[in-house]
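Session log. Operator J.P. requested a structure for one protein chain; no other inputs attached. Running the standard single-chain path with token output.
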Amino acid sequence: MAKEEFNFSVTTLAGCKYSILKDLKKTYRTEKPYRSRLFWSTLASILTTGLSLVDDQVYQHKSKNLEHIKPPVYILGHWRSGTTLLHNLLCSYKNTAYPTTYQTVFPNNLFFLRGLMKRIMQLHLPEHRLVDRVRMHVNYPQEEDFALGNEAGFSFYYWFYYPRDYQRISDEYLSLSHVGSVKAERYRSRYTRFIKRCMLNVGGDQYIAKNPPNMARIPFLQGLFPESRFIYIESNPDEVLQSTFNFFKGFLTTLQLQDMDDETLWEFIFATYLHLYNTYQEDKQLISPSRLFELKYEELVADPAQLLVEMEQGIVSDLEPDEEKLKTLLDRHSKHKINTYEFEPSYIDRVNAHLGPLIQKQGYPLM
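Structure written below.
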């Protein structure tokens, strides 16, 4: 029976390469209340890194004939904007590949002793996600950045561990625009390897990614895969921001190695929202219109089947639906209870002060 709460003595750094974790420990300070959490995470990292040596040999054998990578499909959108629903729906199509929840934590241990480690992780994994009660499972699609942090040494999500250093982490890892050429080249090769491992892990050949930080990485992704396709989804910022705050707070209690007060968290959320949205609006001009599909969350939840038909006629015309899987997901979605919010006037005033013009630009009314 899976747990219902996120309550671990280790963080997701348990699956991090020890060399990467060692660099993080040198770069950022862990506060005293969280040193035990880091200690156990480090021990786990040493163990999983040792096992990964065998895993890498298995990967080398499996990947010998795996050279070509199709242009990936990237789902872009802020956290809590409907990216998870869209990702789950598209990943139900035949022959798709994606990072799994297991892989996000243990990206270096995909082949050797995978069955045992997945069973252990599933026993400790809550049945539902924090905040929205979305189902969780080790095999379900998940975001890239946690996995890339543990495998490639590049992740905006390092801020979850070191929230006091969020600005420094944002500057280096969010858009990748400040990354030096040597680091960028190393990340480029590791990212390609990461996608190949996703393909081998899941068994598909069409990579589909959901990762909010990718809103600020379009030039990097286009440079690596010029024919990449992008699907952008947005939702009412009033609801998105409150839900993001609740979501981040929940993750921080599980992952943080430093404290972060609510006021600082709010400032971080506002700044990140603005940066991601403005960067996307500027960089989307680099994408051919035939390779970009934009929608609103409200449209997706109202008629997901119809939107998928529209995508099948254009942006993902080469994907073949798995009717049974798709029906199961759509039935589950129809029964899922969506969170509703009643906002205090002070909250509305604050959101409007930070994002009023942007909200109106997105076509949502000011509250």
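Operator note: The chain has a mean pLDDT of 90.
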